[in-house]
Amino acid sequence: MTLLLQIMVLVTSVMLVLLVLLHRAKGGGLSSLFGGGMQSNLAGSSVAEKNLDRMTLFVIALWVISIVGTGLLIKMGA
């Protein structure tokens, strides 16, 4: 069970990095410092962006659950 949760942590970590990189920069951060602030903002966010947000939150939830589960199993000595 511990091995399964550790694999889940690894997979969700990679997925989380990829999902965060897919997000559009919303401005004001380091991306605008290096020329990313020249983009024009659209009036609203698209359906794809909303779905990407939902998918990212789902993967974050799986990531947190797998880390807490791994920690509990290690603490119990399983």
Automatic annotation (TrEMBL):
It is a multi-pass membrane protein. GO terms for cellular component: plasma membrane. Pfam families: SecG. Keywords: Cell membrane, Membrane, Protein transport, Translocation, Transmembrane, Transmembrane helix, Transport. The chain crosses the membrane at residues 55-74. InterPro entries: SecG (IPR004692). It is found in: Cell membrane; Membrane. The keyword Transmembrane applies. One of its GO terms (molecular function) is protein-transporting ATPase activity. GO terms for biological process: protein secretion. The keyword Membrane applies. Belongs to the SecG family. Involved in protein export. Participates in an early event of protein translocation. This is Protein-export membrane protein SecG.
